[in-house]
TrEMBL record:
It comes from Brevibacillus choshinensis. Keywords: Glycosyltransferase, Transferase. The keyword Iron does not apply. This is Glycosyl transferase. Belongs to the glycosyltransferase 28 family. Pfam families: Glyco_tran_28_C, MGDG_synth. GO terms for molecular function: transferase activity. Its main location: membrane. Residues 17-182 form the Diacylglycerol glucosyltransferase N-terminal domain. The keyword Transferase applies. Residues 231-343 form the Glycosyl transferase family 28 C-terminal domain. It is found in: Membrane.
Length: 375
C-alpha cells in the first residue's frame, strides 16, 4: 500500500506557497508509491473567517503601512509564540477534526508557516502520528518555520541549512538542501535555449528582450516600470504580463496604442499559465522577489531585476540574491535605464548567469518527492 500525502498551504498571502505545494503534488502523483496526494488550504479548512481576516490585514498593511509591516515581520518570536499558543492550539483542534482524522496522512508537508505549529501540536495527539515536513518557500528562514515536532526541513540553499543548525539548533540530519519546489515544466523548460523559446512564441530573435511581471495579481509597479522602459533609446522587445489584473491590462493596452514615439516592440498580456515559456524567452526578468518567482528565474537562467521588494520576506529574498551577486535591485523606476544598458553587455549578462548557477535547484520538486516517497 502506498503512502498518503497531505500538503497544507495558503494562497491568500500570494500564489507562491500554493504553487510550491502543487509542484510537489504533481511529482508525487507522477510516480508509484503515492496512494493519495491532496493539496489543501490550512486556514480555508480550519477557519474561513480567520482566513479572510488574515488576508484583509496582510493586504491592508502592505498597501497602507509597509514600514509598519516590516517592523511587525521582524518580531518573529512574538508571532511564532502566538502561532504556537493560543492560536496554534485552537487551529490544531480544528485541523484535527476537520481534516486529519479523515485523511489519516502518513506525511504532512507545509509550504506556508501559518498552520505549521498547529500541525505540530496535532501530530502529538493523533493516534496515528505522521511525518511532518517544513518547506520554506523563500531564501531565508525565520522562527515561524521551526518546531521540535518537525521531522524534516526542505530548504533552498546551504546558507539556510546553516541558519537552522546554528541559530535554531535543528539537527543536521533533519535538513535537506533540495531547493524551492517549482513545477516540473520549469525544469524541462530550462533545457531549451532562449532563441528556441523566442522562435516558439513568434518573438524577434535579435532584440534584447525584457519581461515584466508582478505575479498573478499584477502587483509591483508594472505600469511605472513600463513607462521608464519605453524611454530607453535602444530598441527593446518588452513583454508585460499583468496576471489576473484585467483592469491594468486594459489600461496598458490603451496607453500603448496612444504612444506615438514607440520604437520598441511591446506585448501586453494577461494571465499566462505557461510562464516558463516567457521567462525562458527573456534576457532579463523584472519581477517582485517572491521565493517562487526567483526559483523559476533561476531554473530558466534568466537574470532577475528585483523592483521595490515588499516588506518582509521579499526584502529578505532580495538581500540573499544581492549577497550572492545573482540579481539586481531597482528601488526607483528611472534606475532601470542604467541596469538595462549594463545587462545588454554580453560579459555583464554572463557574469550574472554564472552567479545564478550556484543557486539553481530546478529539480527541487523531483528530489523532494523522491525523498518523501522513500521515508
Amino acid at each position: 500500500m502506498g503512502k498518503r500525502f497531505l500538503l497544507v498551504t495558503e494562497e491568500w498571502a500570494g500564489s507562491g506557497h500554493r504553487m510550491a505545494a502543487q509542484a510537489l503534488a504533481e511529482e508525487l502523483r507522477a510516480r508509484p508509491g503515492s496512494e493519495s496526494t491532496r493539496v489543501v488550504g490550512g486556514l480555508e479548512t480550519a477557519s474561513p473567517a480567520l482566513r479572510e481576516l488574515s488576508r484583509f490585514f496582510y493586504l491592508g498593511m502592505l498597501r497602507y503601512a509597509p514600514p509598519l509591516w516590516q517592523r511587525l515581520y521582524e518580531q518573529e518570536k512574538i508571532w511564532s509564540t502566538t502561532l504556537r499558543k493560543p492560536l496554534g492550539w485552537w487551529l490544531s483542534l480544528k485541523l484535527t477534526h476537520e481534516l486529519l482524522i479523515e485523511e489519516q496522512p502518513d506525511v504532512v508537508i507545509a509550504t506556508h508557516a501559518y498552520c505549521l505549529s498547529a500541525l505540530a501540536l496535532a501530530k502529538q495527539k493523533m493516534d496515528k502520528p505522521f511525518h511532518l515536513v517544513s518547506v520554506p518557500t523563500d531564501y531565508h528562514i525565520n522562527h515561524f518555520w521551526v518546531h521540535p515536532q518537525i521531522d524534516s526541513y526542505i530548504v533552498a540553499h546551504e546558507q539556510l541549512a546553516a541558519v537552522l543548525t546554528n541559530k535554531y539548533q535543528v539537527s543536521a540530519d533533519k535538513i535537506h538542501v533540495h531547493g524551492i519546489p517549482v513545477r516540473p515544466a520549469f525544469h524541462e523548460a530550462g533545457k531549451r535555449d532562449k532563441p528556441g523559446w523566442r522562435t516558439k512564441l513568434g518573438l524577434s530573435l535579435d532584440r534584447f528582450t525584457v519581461l515584466v511581471s508582478g505575479g498573478e495579481g499584477g502587483y509591483g509597479g508594472i505600469q511605472e516600470m513600463l513607462y521608464e522602459l519605453i524611454k530607453i533609446q535602444t530598441p527593446l522587445q518588452i513583454i508585460v504580463i499583468t496576471g489576473k489584473n484585467a483592469k491594468l491590462q486594459m489600461q496598458l493596452e490603451a496607453w500603448i496604442r496612444l504612444e506615438t514615439s514607440q520604437h520598441h516592440v511591446v506585448f501586453i498580456k494577461g494571465y499566462e499559465p505557461q510562464m516558463w515559456q516567457w521567462i525562458g524567452a527573456a534576457d532579463v526578468y523584472i519581477s517582485k522577489p517572491g521565493g517562487i518567482s526567483c526559483a523559476e528565474a533561476l531554473a530558466l537562467r534568466t537574470p532577475l531585476i528585483l523592483y521595490r521588494p515588499l516588506p518582509g520576506q521579499e526584502r529578505r529574498n532580495s538581500a540573499f540574491f544581492m549577497q550572492n551577486e545573482a540579481a539586481v535591485i531597482v528601488e526607483r523606476p528611472e534606475e532601470i535605464h542604467e541596469v538595462i544598458n549594463r545587462l545588454r553587455i554580453r560579459e555583464q549578462w554572463e557574469r550574472v548567469i554564472e552567479k545564478m548557477e550556484s543557486l539553481r535547484r530546478p529539480e527541487a520538486a523531483y528530489r523532494t518527492a523522491e525523498y518523501l516517497l522513500g521515508l
